[in-house]
């Protein structure tokens, strides 16, 4: 989030953390950085100025959900099945990008045994990206 704060500020997006449960997992830090960097960057990039991007880490039983909620246009239902394809970019495509970010994030999630899903928000306009990881059991 620190690395994306300058982009958020330049786009006048309020980027913040709304929930920070303790959640420990085991895996490749590089992969988790790739996933979260792509999800947060997309949220900041595709949300119109003065919008909000909220990041939450929510522990629930043996799993943790990392949710990124934005107030942007979201993704049309008919395009949703294709967003993880390489080079796919949903309309409108007036911004710069390669269409590779989500396919790379998905591959990294699969390597780490994590689940990655996108959906339209139910509490208002915008997209919610959700990464679900299995928590490591921390026995003394
Ligand atoms: N948070 C989001 N809000 C709206 N559209 C999104 C969001 N995240 C991704 N998308 C759509 O999914 C497409 C694919 O995303 P991605 O694979 O990261 O490629 P890129 O960002 O390079 O276009 C984007 O072009 C955009 O249309
Ligand atoms: Mg992207």
Layout of strands and helices, then pairs:
Blueprint: H1 5-10, E1 14-20, H2 29-46, E2 52-60, E3 63-70, H3 101-111, E4 115-120, E5 127-134
Parallel strand pairs: 1-2
Antiparallel strand pairs: 2-3, 3-5, 4-5
Helix pairs in contact: 2-3
Bound molecules: adenosine-5'-diphosphate and magnesium ion (MG).
Give a quick rundown of the structure.
The protein has 140 residues and is α+β, with helices and mostly antiparallel strands.
Structure write-up:
This protein has 140 residues and is an alpha+beta fold. The protein has one domain: Histidine kinase-like ATPase, C-terminal domain (Heat Shock Protein 90), CATH 3.30.565.10. It is 25% helix and 27% strand. It has a five-stranded mixed beta sheet. Helix 2 packs antiparallel against helix 3. The longest helix has 18 residues. It is globular. It starts with a helix and ends in a 6-residue tail after the last strand. The protein binds adenosine-5'-diphosphate and magnesium ion. Magnesium ion binds next to helix 2.
């Amino acid at each position: 989030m620190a690395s994306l704060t300058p982009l958020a500020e330049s786009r006048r997006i309020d980027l913040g953390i709304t929930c920070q449960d303790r959640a420990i997992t085991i895996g490749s830090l590089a992969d988790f950085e790739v996933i979260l960097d792509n999800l947060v960057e997309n949220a900041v990039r595709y949300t119109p100025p003065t919008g909000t991007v909220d990041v939450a880490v929510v522990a629930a039983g043996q799993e943790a959900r990392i949710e990124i909620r934005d107030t942007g246009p979201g993704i049309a239902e008919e395009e949703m099945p294709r967003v993880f394809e390489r080079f796919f970019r949903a309309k409108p495509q007036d911004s710069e990008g390669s269409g590779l970010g989500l396919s790379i994030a998905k591959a990294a999630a699969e390597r780490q045994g994590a689940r990655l899903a996108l959906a339209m928000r139910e509490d208002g306009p915008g997209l919610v990206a959700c990464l679900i990881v299995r928590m490591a059991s921390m026995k003394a």
